[in-house]
Specification:
Layout: H1 3-136, H2 146-155
Helix pairs in contact: 1-2
Subcellular location: Cell membrane; Endomembrane system
Family: Belongs to the ATPase B chain family.
GO cellular component, one term: endomembrane system
Length: about 160
């Protein structure tokens, strides 16, 4: 056989091999590649959805954190206001109590002064009576001269 027959035989065999490969081997390979490309597309789309969902979750968590901080600040402000109100109320009650104590002390002082004045008047009356006895040289009857002694006590 000559070289020409070998080349023609090899060409026919190669053509049959190509036809067989195109008919039976290539379609499953192409289908597997298409399925793989679809899976990759789906994976990329899922990754994009995941990134979008992560970004949304991040925004939601930031918003929740801002709300929580604002709520905490409101609670602190309310507590500070309540503390200030309690302090002011305590100061007011303390002032009222101090005024009441001062008023009671002043009333006690006034009553003590009145008692002291009354005792002093009695003592002055007794001294005046004693002085009058010495001047007159005789005893002055306190019960007989009671009106005179009362008048003298009121003048003093």
């Amino acid at each position: 056989m000559g070289i020409n027959a070998t080349i023609i035989g090899q060409t026919i065999t190669f053509a049959l091999f190509v036809l067989f490969t195109m008919k039976f081997v290539w379609p499953p390979i192409k289908q597997a590649m298409n399925e793989r490309a679809k899976k990759i597309e789906d994976g990329l789309a899922a990754a994009e959805r995941g990134e979008a969902s992560l970004a949304e979750a991040s925004r939601a968590s930031d918003d929740a954190l801002k709300d929580a901080r604002a709520q905490a600040q409101d609670i602190l402000n309310g507590a500070n206001r309540q503390a200030n109100d309690i302090v002011e109320k305590a100061k007011s009650e303390a002032r009222t109590e101090a005024e009441r104590i001062i008023k009671a002390a002043n009333e006690e002082i006034e009553a003590s002064m009145q008692r002291a004045k009354a005792e002093l008047r009695k003592e002055v009356s007794a001294i005046a009576l004693s002085g009058a006895q010495k001047v007159l040289g005789r005893e002055v009857d306190a019960s007989a001269h009671d009106d005179l002694l009362k008048q003298l006590a009121t003048e003093i």
